[in-house]
Protein 1
Amino acid sequence: MDKAHSRGGSPVGDSDGALSPLLDPSRLQTERRAATDRLLARLKALDGTHTAQTPRAYAQRYVRQQEALILGLLNAGVGTEEILTDLALAFSSIPTAEFRHAIAQLRDRQRKQIGASPATPSARPASAPPPKASSEAPSGPAASTPSAPDRRPDESDEDYRLRKALEGPPDQSRQFIGER
């Protein structure tokens, strides 16, 4: 009988076998707004207690709050100086040196978390196999096939073709700054 109820929009069986009513979407939305408002009010109250602080403490706190955004920019190839320029334009009362220090701490924290060298756009996940030598990379029509031996496991067909187009033929590969 409870299977019929679960299909018909009536009560649904819980893991303990008891019946519980289905959730009302409009009520959930109202409760969600109320919970969000309460959490935001608590955050504003906490922010008020942190207003009287040093520029360095503020810069560190702001960079920690924006960690995902800043790391995304750094991983996308945006330089630290470009980020600092944007921050200097927005925060004229905070010295750039304080933000530089905060970003350096952020990068150090990231290095410790991943246990590797600094994050770069070409950094590969720890689960990915090491890249093969460029002399093994296929060229010509075989390079566009998704079953190529140097294709990364997390790479889509489109990403693989784009990477191969950017890399070019193995005999024309160049060393970039920081590569050995």
Protein 2
Amino acid sequence: MLVPLSASSNEENAPTLPIEQLTGEALHVKLVEVTYQYDYLNKRCRGVSLSTMVQELNRLFLRKYGITVNNFVKLNIDRDTRGYKESVNQAFSEKLFELGGCPGASESNLVDTLKEQYRVLFENAQTSPWFPRT
């Protein structure tokens, strides 16, 4: 499965790699992005307001790096953590619209795709020797 490396507005110009081959910073950035997307989809389409994946990722980052997801974003992606999360959610909202909203996302198995991406990225991050800026 090929994925863009960033959620920026020039996403179509971003290089793509199979998600299983992402390493280091690209792996962790994509993991944060997929985590935000999954929790946004749960909130928007499934009525689940808990950010369960962000909480799980926070536990990993605290245990492994001693920083929260917000601090990781601030130090390694964008100093405006709220703005970054909103831009990821906005880009994902546009994708959701293209799929036909929540019913289209359900028909296209987007939830399962995001779960699988999250699982692969999370497992790779657990064993990654890369250490973020802290």
Protein 3
Amino acid sequence: MYLPPVEKKPQSPLVKWTVRLFLLVLFVGFFFFLSLNFLAGKTDAHKKGLEAALSELVKKPVIITELKEFNIIPQFHFEVNGVTSSNITVEKFAISYGFWDLFLGRPYIESLRFENLRVPPAILTNLPLFIENAAILDSGIFTFNGFLGKDVLKGTIPLTRLEGRFRPSYHITQPEINLDVGVYKIHYKVINQSKSVVINGGGLSQEIPFTNFDYYVSPDAFWFAFEGTDHDCSFLRIRGLDNGRANIEIYGLEASEVFDISRFNLKCTSNKNP
């Protein structure tokens, strides 16, 4: 039986250009990721580049002793030993982000850990701060422990783990901080946009609701002001005694002569006890 030859129809120009565009995107994407992979490494040039990037981020010079690892694909990750900036030192530091999370500015983090962070007095508090270990646990809790002055310091920050990801990824949905400082327990929480600080221990048992807060550090203390809904303000002073231990005191506006109110960017007008 004779079958006539099938006449080939010319391919649509739209199909041709679609295929060409797809191959072009594939080609460019391949070399893009290949070039990113070549950017990874732990040479002296990589270390200097990371120092420059971190210095720009914190607006102060950053010096790294050793760059142990630096990757960009499939995740942005670096691990360093010996970091110094403005007398603040950390012995070990490692952090990881998903590449696309970092590229698109999404507030997700995959891992964070550091060891032996030392902060001299009058930078964060008037007492020396030492964090021995800090890390994000698989359970989604950022935990840290160390010392504030001579007081044992422990803290946790709950994080939310994103579901359906190949690697664990975390972010903060409900800001909350739990601190144990010597005899004190401090809990900062936000529930339905209502913020408050709860302090227990050392003869104190107080919850301070607030809408805004401000602080400053002096050579002898760490000063907080919490502004309420009616511009009533409560003041909190954390200072080190002669033995290097923390002492926490709460004041209302009537005792605000202890505080330099001009240092706070708040409207503290009404006379209400905390």
